[in-house]
Specification:
Strand content: 25-35%
Largest sheet: 5 strands, mixed
Distance between the termini: 50 Å
CATH superfamily: NADH:ubiquinone oxidoreductase Nqo5 subunit
CATH class: Alpha Beta
Helix content: 10-25%
CATH architecture: 2-Layer Sandwich
Shape: globular
Structural class: alpha+beta
CATH topology: Beta Polymerase, domain 2
Number of strands: 11
């Protein structure tokens, strides 16, 4: 059973966004999924309307739904999940948007709504390749500037695509094709008569 403040929040969300948003209540948490075309307007409304007063974006991440759980995913591949907090109302909501183009995922930036979106969006760009339109400084934040691809995409090779090493002759770091051959790692079990005794 949800607490009273979340029931009130759910009712207000359904009243304001019910015509286009899917609002789900589970485990004392509210999740609102909105279409990409309503994303920026919804976020701004969640911040500005006194009924919601979500002053803080506390987290934002990318998601690759290429395979999800134990089933085959049939919807859009990429999503952005934001966690919002209202300090004044003492409640939270999870805002999900699915990005409409799987080949070139572009979604509006939330930087002008919450400045804390800056590094979160850079991370989602770096790791998933999601472009945040209107972001002032969208560049890699965790991988190297010469890195090829986006390592959190589910089709990214586990071993990567290139390796880097220091070359003492050239006195610099160089990139080269992977030289490690893929292998199956099976744990070796050592059994001793008196192990653990």
């Amino acid at each position: 059973m949800m607490n009273e403040s979340l029931v009130l929040l759910q009712q207000q969300l359904e009243k304001s966004f019910g015509s286009f948003a899917k609002i789900d209540a589970r485990l004392n948490e509210l999740t609102m999924t909105v279409p990409a075309e309503h994303y920026l307007k919804t976020a701004t409304q969640l911040r500005d309307e006194p009924a919601f007063a979500f002053e803080q974006l506390i987290d934002l991440c990318g998601v690759d739904y290429q395979s999800y759980g134990d089933t085959v995913w049939s919807g859009l591949r990429f999503g952005v999940v934001s966690h919002l907090l209202s300090v004044s109302k003492n409640w939270r909501v999870r805002l999900i948007v699915l990005v409409s183009n799987d080949d070139f995922p572009v979604i509006p930036s939330l930087m002008n709504v919450w400045s804390s979106a800056n590094w979160y969006e850079r991370e989602a760009f770096d790791l998933f390749g999601i472009i945040f339109e209107g972001h002032d400084d969208l560049r890699r934040i965790l991988t190297d500037y010469g890195f090829i691809g986006h390592p959190f995409r589910k089709d990214f090779p586990v071993s990567g695509q290139v390796e880097m090493r220091y070359d003492p002759e050239q006195k610099r770091v160089i990139y080269q094709p992977i030289t490690i051959e893929p292998r199956e790692v099976i744990p070796r079990i050592i059994r001793e008569e008196n192990y653990g005794a």
